[in-house]
Amino acid sequence: MAIESNQRTTDAAAGPAGGVDYESVPADYLAARQLKKGAAGWVLLAGLGVSYVISGDYAGWNLGLAQGGFGGMLIATLVMGAMYLCMVLTLAELSAALPTAGGGYSFARRALGPWGGYLTGTAILLEYALAPAAIAVFIGGYVNALVGIDGWVVYLGSYLIFVGIHLWGVGEALKTMFVISLLAVLAIGVFAVGMAPHFDAANLFDITVNERATGASAFLPEGYIGVWAALPFAIWLFLAVEGVPLAAEEAADPARDMPRGIITAMLVLILFGALVLALAPGGAGADFMKDHGAPLVGALEAVYGEGSALAAFV
Description:
By secondary structure, this protein is mainly α. It is built from twelve helices and no strands. The chain has helices at 2-14, 27-31, 42-53, 64-97, 104-147, 152-168, 170-195, 225-234, 254-284, 286-289, 295-304, 309-313. The longest helix has 44 residues, at 104-147.
């Protein structure tokens, strides 16, 4: 925030830049709006990063199997993983140098000016507005697998519950988020242990090959174009980890904690992504997984039967 204050003062003194003007405000105005410094260590930041993304391990990614088969989804995941790893390393440096709560907006504004910051901030807002809608659909798939109820009732209920928790208070929302995230991590661990003995590499390539597609094979049943088509689904394994820098201002030591936290979160997400991508189709079959609404539950039910304790827990 101090950096942002200096930038505003400089901009105001220089006059309008790029059609944008700023109101000069006293230092105590921004000081009163600073977040609580020292509230987050690197472990907490890593936990935040994992909690932002972990819902994507439960659904969404498997739809990429229908677009590119296991091979196409694997290549798409490697591409997205490399892209996000590079972005995370960049954000680790930027958030250490500019520890402000603006995150990507602040970085873009400093580098590209007011309009660059505005466009970046708008894109980030759109991302975080649309992602919960997709997650509500994922929740519907798992609720349907558990109790047989799906549709708008579940979606609306999900929104009401989580909006209510946030209105209850920031502290309560964070505690609830971490409890849910810990349960989600535990469930992925249970899933991995339960599916590992049933892994069969042949199950990864059971999708019918589209002979009309260029480069089609058992590895790429939809051909080379399937890799491109699977990219939007591979992003679910990493989407939103870039939100960690939003907590930079609250870090105890941003120069040390931010790089450690965000890189650790990314490494954990790579591990989780590899587990679900290999074990779900490897145990239950890629063809069965490609359009399943609750892939982790569906995979466990395929090998242990419907109503199994493992599937119910996950």
